[in-house]
Amino acid sequence: MVERLVIDHVGHRGDGVALAGGQAIYVPYTLGGETVEVAPVPGHHPDRRRLLAVEHASEARIAPFCPHFTVCGGCAIQHWEVERYRAWKREIVVETLALSKIECEVAPLIDAHGLGRRRITLHARIGTHDVLKVGFAAANSHDIIPVDRCPILAPGLGGALDSAWALAEPLISIGKPLDIQITAADNGLDVDVRGSGPLQAKMIATLSRLAEQHRLTRLTRHGELVLMRTPPVVAIGTARVTLPPGSFLQATAAGEEALAEQVVGHCQRAKHVADLFCGVGPLALRLATKSRISAFDSDTGAVTALQKAAMAASGLKPVKTEARDLFRRPLMPQELRDFDAVVFDPPRQGAQAQAQQLAASKVPVVVAVSCNVATFARDARILVEGGYKIEGVTPVDQFRHTAHVELVAKFVR
User: Fold this and answer.
1) Ordered strands of the 188-194 beta sheet
2) 117: CB partners within 8 A, 6+ apart
3) Does residue 174 surpass a pLDDT of 70?
4) Bridge partners (DSSP) listed for residue 145
5) Quick one: pLDDT at residue 173?
6) Cβ–Cβ < 8 Å for 402, 409
7) Cα–Cα nearest to 219, from 178, 257, 255
8) DSSP string across 37-56
9) Burial of 71 (0-12, 13-18, 19+ CB in 10 A)
10) Strand order in the sheet with 49-56
């Protein structure tokens, strides 16, 4: 059944929202003010529609730059004029904070796409007629869209798609679906394959040959080493970090730098800083140029890599690391009393338990980094109710063309 709808605005997830009969209807790839023809999406929630045609286009609509747009699920927005898109992304932060009754200044959005994404996860599956497909998941689907190029990737990921296809071909013969995580280290591609099952000696020999052929720095399976030509390294500030297998990095180098610049600015007077959820040290290793650092994360490989990098770098203040699950064992107020500033950069679920302990502490400066505005708002509310004043929020856009937005906020007592 074909319907005609008028799109009212773009929602927080990037879909156009039509208000029909008191109900919100979500239509991907549409903009406010557009008249569109849509159809139901079988098997999906009744408030979703599939775009058939744009009858009346917004003056802010532009041509997407990628031939896979609307089919591949990676990008939600390539069809919107850049200034309107940027204003919308900042407004996501403004509106989410307002809903939580958090009053503060929201700075202009920082564009941190830079050279593009430096890490991707590709999926390999056997499709119909036993045809191998390697690519990204389709929008709102488990189907795989085969790709041979992606224009939002950084130059450092050049060759990543060819490598994934080459590795998938022998591995998929085992019959299991594969996920292939590829990170652009400074000295080449670091690849971790998941889903293959145990590898026989003959398969390891094949993969080793392919790793040499595609000049991979390292190939791991579920984090276990298959082949290392050279340790994959990234520069963080003045330090060089050897990446643990499958380790987390910010999606773009420019995004990491933009977030770190904000954090360092907020902590410039602190002599001793706690870096919570520190990862491999994108914040700690920059903060250590001026401050003594105590860094905590549940990922043992990450904190070990951070410690080694800090010890090998010159000109840094002391960096002490500890592997600790901050969800189960947050730092308590008595453990926090020696810090002039605390930085926390949790995963998407936020850091509710740690925020509660910070709210009960006397730490003069708390800096929050977040990749989820909703969980940040919840944690910020805890800090504000504990007596902190929020001085401002800076949104950072490293996931350009999507609804994801990062932010940095400063709290003071």
Assistant:
1) 144-146, 132-137, 119-126, 178-185, 188-194, 216-221, 224-228
2) 152, 153, 154, 157, 251, 252
3) no
4) 136
5) 72
6) no
7) 178
8) EEEE-TTS-TTBEEEEEEEE
9) middle
10) 23-27, 16-20, 3-10, 35-40, 49-56
pTM check: above 0.90? yes
C-alpha dihedral (306, 311, 313, 315), degrees to nearest 10: 120
- How many helices and strands (H and E) does the chain possess? 9, 22
Identify residue 130 by its one-letter amino acid code. Answer: D
| Residue 243 belongs to some domain of the structure | no
Domain annotation covers residue 69: no
Q: What confidence tier does 175 reach under pLDDT thresholds 50, 70, 90? A: low
Residues 299, 323 contacting (CB under 8 angstroms) = yes
Binning pLDDT at 50, 70 and 90, where does residue 127 land?
confident
The catalytic residue positions are: 371
Same domain, 276 and 350: yes
Looking up tokens 């292939």, which residue turns up? 180
Give residue 188's identity as a one-letter amino acid code.
G
Residues 216 and 292 in one domain: no
DSSP state of 278: -
How many structural domains are present in the chain? 3
* Residue 160 lies in domain: 119-233
What CATH number has the domain bearing residue 150?
2.40.50.1070
Does 140 have pLDDT greater than 90? no
Binning pLDDT at 50, 70 and 90, where does residue 38 land?
A: very high
Question: Can you give the three-state secondary structure of 156-219, one letter per residue?
Answer: HHCCHHHHHHHHHHHHHHHCCCEEEEEEEECCEEEEEEECCCCCCHHHHHHHHHHHHHCCEEEE
Lowest-pLDDT choice from 63-77, 194-208, 321-335: 194-208
Nearest residue to 408 (alpha-carbon basis) of 370, 377, 363, 352: 370
Is 327 among the domain residues? yes
d(CA 134, CA 146) in angstroms, rounded, equals: 5
Name the DSSP class of 128.
Answer: G
Note the pLDDT tens digit of each residue in 9-32. Answer: 999 999 999 998 889 999 999 999
pLDDT of residue 376: 98
**Shared domain check, 186 and 168:** yes
